[in-house]
Specification:
- By secondary structure, this protein is an alpha/beta fold.
- The longest helix is centred in the last third of the chain and has 29 residues.
- The chain has two domains: 223 residues, Spore Coat Polysaccharide Biosynthesis Protein SpsA, Chain A, CATH 3.90.550; 61 residues.
- Strand 2, helix 4 and strand 3 form a beta-alpha-beta unit.
- Strands 3-2-1-4-6-5-7 form a seven-stranded mixed β-sheet, with helices on both faces.
- The N terminus is likely disordered.
- It is elongated, with a radius of gyration of 23 Å.
- Helix 11 packs antiparallel against helix 12.
- The protein is built from twelve helices and seven strands.
């Protein structure tokens, strides 16, 4: 894997202000977006850039964004939350990018707090109050995903997928080839930063009720979360999963063989134990292969 160098550029709050691009993905947010842009007006006046990526909206999101002083990028069709952020980050003309939501949940007054935190870290992420912004039906999947991410990153991640974060554009662009187009963009970015040795800071933030709409919960979300867990395991540290699984199969094979020999007074190894031993070897070799593929993929820049 090609190592990515971590570059720290220490700057003061006064210096960072005009160097900020605020990227807002928006899909049918014509009602909530005006208040968000109104609250961001002070950043425009200080020289910051606001980019709204209209992700195939069927309402007047693009018009509202343009009238609010934002630079608008339009998708002909809905490509997904991650795809919108990718486009916005690639288009950013400032040194620092802040990802922000269009539904009014985040407080624009807290942007500066995250930007200033970049003096001491590579990415600053907002930590929402526990349970905020998460429908009840999604909580079990998010809990399992969080535990998996903590295991892979070997650290406790306070908020795995908060969409309110700040990092340098140069750093963000290094990971765009790894990041998905869907809702798991932020989760994958978080793990990528941790696995490549970047410093990530977490700061508590305020979360307001949505100004418009509600978060939809679909049966497919559970399946998507399961696929995401498998994906991040395969991408970031497959050996941490495959090696324990291989060892467990091998141990069960030994115990099975011992039990079979005692119970049936057999001298040869039971067929079931052989299957377990072979499975353990196959899982181990598959883990080695997956680890090499992961290293090659994450090394691409």
């Amino acid at each position: 894997m090609i190592a990515l160098e971590t570059t720290h550029q220490f700057v003061t709050a006064l210096d960072t202000t005009p160097n900020v691009s605020i990227v807002i993905p928006a899909f049918n947010e014509e009602n909530g977006l005006p208040d968000v842009l109104k609250n961001l007006r002070a950043w425009l006046q200080r020289g910051a850039e606001i980019i709204v990526v209209d992700d195939g909206s069927t309402d007047d999101t693009a018009r509202v964004a343009s009238e609010g002083g934002a630079r608008v990028i339009r998708h002909r069709n809905n490509k997904g939350y991650g795809a919108a952020l990718k486009v916005g980050i690639r288009a950013a003309e400032r040194e620092i990018v802040v990802t922000f939501d269009a539904d009014g949940q985040f407080d624009t007054n807290e942007i500066e707090k995250l930007v200033n935190a970049l003096n001491d870290c590579d990415m600053a992420v907002g930590v929402r109050p526990q349970g905020a912004g998460s429908p009840t039906l999604r909580k079990p999947g998010k809990w399992l995903l969080g535990k998996t991410a903590n295991y892979l990153a070997q650290t406790d991640i306070p908020d795995l997928n908060c969409g309110f974060r700040a990092l340098r554009v140069e750093t963000a662009k290094r990971f765009l080839n790894l990041l998905p187009n869907g809702f798991s963009f932020t989760t994958t970015l978080t793990l990528a930063m941790f696995k490549d040795g970047y410093n990530v800071a977490y700061l508590p933030i305020t979360v307001h009720p949505r100004t418009t709409g509600t978060s939809s919960v679909r049966v497919a979300d559970g399946f998507s979360t399961l696929l995401l867990i498998i994906r991040i395991i395969a991408l970031f540290d497959p050996l941490k999963v495959f090696l324990p699984a291989s060892a467990l199969l091998f141990l069960i094979g030994i115990l099975y063989s011992i039990f079979d020999s005692i119970a049936f007074a057999r001298l040869n190894i039971a067929a079931g134990a052989v299957v377990l031993f072979v499975s353990a070897v196959m899982v181990f070799m598959f883990g080695i292969l997956a680890d090499q593929v992961s290293a090659i993929r994450r090394g691409q820049d």
